[in-house]
Amino acid sequence: MGTLWSRSGSSLSLLPERQRSERQEEDSDNTSLDGLVRPEDIAQFPYVEFTGRDSITCPTCQGTGRIPSDQVNELVALIPYSDQRLRPQRTKLYVVLSVVLCLLASSLVAFFLFPRSVVVVDDGIHSVTVLLNPSGKNVLMNMTSTLNLSNPNFFSVLVQSVSCQVLYMKTEIGTQQLDSVTTILPLGHSQVNYTVSVTIGSSAPYVYAFCSMPSIKVHNIVVYMRTTVKTSYMVRTSQNSLEAYRYIDCGSNTTRYRADGQHRSPPLLL
Q: For 211, phi and psi rounded to 5 degrees?
């Protein structure tokens, strides 16, 4: 056994080597408890409730350290009033963002689902087939017209019906109605052709004489056409009405009209 000389102030003391080794072991134990090994070692120990003179057993876990599963929905945690969780941050920012998002969503829904009227354009009369009946002094004509339909909505539109009424001198000479015509796709276009058969007879006998007069090259008469288009989409039903005066060549031939009002007359059908 050796000895260790130590100076403390002005005095000298002899420390046995065995006491020195014991102190080194105690220092190493304290270092291990204060180091990285200490939390791992503590985690290995089970929950133990230390009861003494001034302590009581926890009434919630009964000293087990665990909450019974059947009491999870019954127990209430008490949080101090000064706890930061009771004072959420950026509350105004979240409220403003929520309001802006709601307004944006409602605007988009209103923009895409707001119903718009279907655009109906009369493309005019494309062809007229004329038949003169000498025995009955009648003028029979089949007029084919075209409608251009445009759907500005973001959903499909059903064209329920297309009806047309033709008048000559305030007298009805022909009608036509088509049901369940077509369905127009979202932001789509469609074209509808319809033919109206008209007869001008006893109510205007001079028309037959005028249309069959060989000395006149162009036998134009004026008719009044009223066209109604009914459409339905979502829970709304709309109606578009078109009214126009049309010139028709009744000289036993077929006449083709263009949308700009000009017409081309093919050779007479003899």
A: -70, -25
pLDDT per residue as tens, the chain (270 positions): 444 444 444 444 444 555 555 555 555 555 544 444 455 555 555 555 555 666 667 777 776 777 777 777 777 777 787 877 777 778 888 999 999 999 999 999 988 888 888 999 998 888 888 888 888 788 899 999 999 999 999 999 999 999 999 999 888 999 999 998 889 999 999 999 999 999 988 777 788 888 888 888 888 889 999 999 999 988 888 999 999 999 888 886 665 544 444 444 333 332
Q: Is the pTM of this model over 0.90?
A: no
Q: Tell me the helix, strand and coil percentages in the chain, rounded to 5.
A: 25, 40, 35
Q: In Å, what is the CA distance from 179 to each residue of 129, 161, 184, 188, 200?
A: 24, 4, 15, 20, 26
Which DSSP state fits 194?
E
DSSP letters, 145-166, are EEEEEE--SSS-EEEEEEEEEE
Q: Beta strand pairing status for 11-16 and 3-8?
A: antiparallel
Is the CB of residue 131 less than 8 Å from the CB of residue 143? Answer: no
Secondary structure of residue 27 in the 3-state scheme: helix
Print burial letters for 224-237: b (CB count within 10 Å at least 16), e (below 16): bbebbbbbebeeee
CA distances to 38, 168, 217, 247 from 222, rounded to whole Å, are 108, 7, 16, 5
Place of tokens 């709601």: 102
Q: What angle do CA 30, 35, 36 make, to 5 degrees?
A: 145
Q: What is the token pair recorded at 74?
A: 């019954």
Three-class SS state of 248:
strand
**Tokens 């979202």 sit at which residue?**
186
